[in-house]
Please model this.
Amino acid sequence: MMARPDLFVIGRMLEALGPAPLRRTQLQQKAGLNYTVFQRYLEFLIHLGLIANSAEEEGRLALTPKGAEALRFLSEGLTRIFGTEGPPQRLRDPRAVDPRAAL
Amino acid sequence: MGPTVSAEGNTFAAIDGGMKRLEDHIHRTARRSWRFSILSWIFGVAVAILLIIPVQTTTMTSSGGTQSSGPAWYAHPIVFLGFIALLAVIVLEFFLARREALDLRAGDPENSPQPPGEGGWVLAVQQSQKVLTRMKNVVEFSLLPLAFGLIVLGVAGVSDLVGGMSLAQFWWLLIGLVPTVVLVPSLFVLAHRWVGGFQQLLDRQVHELSLLEAEFIWRFAGKPA
Model:
């Protein structure tokens, strides 16, 4: 069990599987990870039940319902914290600290 | 509530892009701050050097002869204007650095960021925080030579006024000095505020990410937060 998993890595892996099941190599490429990190996170996510072997397509990995929920959770959480367009996005969040406001 | 994952699945790439842009802004602002610092030190050192080197001038006396004397170097309009010009450049660099910090449309849109590997965001934040701390120290430290130069100009101006500076020279000095004496504390406050703003933003992101990690582990890994 990972002590402090990188949520961005998890989010990218889950998001890559969102549209359709992928082979391992395809998932690794889409997530942009080196082999060692990818293997470690893949085992972790399979262990958590967020990713599983696809029932419809042999040899491919797919998102489970729990994985889809996790993806929504991470997408909303990380977007809330960091925004998707840098500081302008965060400006629309009244809870965000904006360096421009200090000026 | 909150954005949904797009069909193209590029939410995390967009987040990465936003963070990269913030990092780029911090680094560009830091480079401008270095230029501001270099110019401030040039100003301070130039004042210090000219304090040591007296300027000799020759004037006509009332009896028709000549007299050499060494009036304060600052009384030469060319020298004085030169310092004002340098101060103007210093202030320009400072406000350009501030504009870099605020210019949220800057950046090369074709330079799409590569997603960082594991722990990439943490490393990027640590790097940005180091840059911000260094930038704050550089800007604050650079206000010392500026303040030194201004105090010297001010003291020399007052002493020469007592010694019989012409009214025109006095007004030149006043017009040059008053805004700059007000400027140094203003620059100090501004630099503190904008650097502090970035630092607060990063600290808040670090804190909220920790909370999100704990909640993720609790919800999906079945472990207590």
Summary: The longest strand of chain B covers residues 57-60. Chain B has one domain: 20-108+120-220.
